[in-house]
Amino acid sequence: MRRVCPHWSTALARPDILALALGWAFAALPAAGDIAYVTNQNGGSVSILDLAAGTELAQVPLPGQPAGIAVAAGGFFAVLPDTKSLRRFDAAGNETGQVALDGGPIGIAHDPLRGRVFVSDWYNARLWVVDSAAMSLTGTLETGTAPAGLAVSPDGRWLASADKEAGQVSIFDLESLALAGTVPVGIRPFGLGFAPDGRLFVGNVGSNDVSVVDVAERHVLATLPVGDQPYGVAFARGRAFVTNQHADTVSVIDLGTLAPLGEIAVGEYPEGIDATADGATVVVANWFSNSVSLIDAETLTVTAEIATGDGPRAFGRFIAERGD
Amino acid sequence: MNLQGSLAALTAVAVMVPALALAHGPTRQKVDVTAELAAEPAEVWAVVGDFQDMGWHPAVHATTGEGGNTLDATRLLTLGAADGPTIAEELYKYDAGKMTYSYRITEVAVEVLPVTNYSAHLTVKPRAGGGSVVEWRGAFYRGYPNNDPPPELNDEAAIKAVTAVYEAGLSALVDRFGAP
């Protein structure tokens, strides 16, 4: 029996966590470059990664099993399902505000134009509307059952919610916060994202495909097969990138033709995915491997892997461009 | 909570879970257990690498299934005795060259194993210095899909149960093949 050693708890004993708890606030951020804020759900922390240097700048303790993440000017927001709260941080990871969300908070999107943050309530078929300056709850929006991923359209007009158990997306008008309509998609949609041209790409965990949605017309333009259990979607260099949790790969789709361009092997259980501002690099959080993989969006090859805390999820937009 | 209350809560869960089998709690859990064996990888893989025979695990009374070791093959594990509880599983990756396979649970009662949305990998690798290393890794949510789980269906209960299954299986392999 002694030769059988469970490893799952070792991250809890990392001595550097304590050092970081005392010293992370003073971690120097680079003058400029892309920074990734990765929620480590099992480890209860956020890894702040310098993507150009390929290093972890700090690991900020954040008890409460953080999942959803949304970067914003000057910092980021994180959703903590276990402590049922939304918290706001500055760029170095210092907490600057929080609001209690009593339910099952998970996904998040930020509307910078109107100073609002939206958080999905997995258990109660609704979204919370939060004033991001005051960090106060200003309302709720009704969705289908089990809303998960949220996204704001590039033109700032629409908010989309993947209603997992309802097999649909809900589309809200961001100006009026009215429900514009719902669109049936595949089985158990979880993650989603808007392409730069405004089309909505929705990963359907249960049907192993991606629904491409015309949001203004509210209908499905195409359904594209991807790998096993698609999770998150990102865009770069005229391509969509989709993490496949059970295949340990990223599917690549050409945005012009919607043709598949291949699958890239990454770490185990890839989940959150986002692209750098210049579109050169796509970053994937590998939940089981405790790392992120960096993909060259042009050559479609993995160029680096950076260690994170335990159980990186990074569910949302997690890469920020910092400094000038 | 008194015993009556506990039983009532458990009954409520048992009734509710089948309808919500695809719903799950907020945080996926992971368990990773390894064992070092004296036997070479090929010898170990010959025993553990057949998806249709899990007889190497002491808790498994019988394995029946379809599809061999091809993708989407299924198996039904009967635990303990001929009339024991069952776990239905499905193969979603199989690589004999790399000596690894991945499978999902498609149906299990939370009273048998307090998890939902369970997937796992079993891998045999060469050990530096001779022998082999067997690694069993699982990803799953707790048995209770909603907020505020009862203690027997919370995250800790799920981790404890899966860890016990893996340790029992790998200990049996250590007994069978010896420690290096």
TrEMBL record, chain A:
SUPFAM superfamilies: C-terminal (heme d1) domain of cytochrome cd1-nitrite reductase. It comes from the Bacteria. InterPro entries: Haem_d1_sf, Host-pathogen_enzymatic-act, WD40/YVTN_repeat-like_dom_sf, YVTN_b-propeller_repeat. This is YncE family protein. It comes from Rhodovulum strictum.
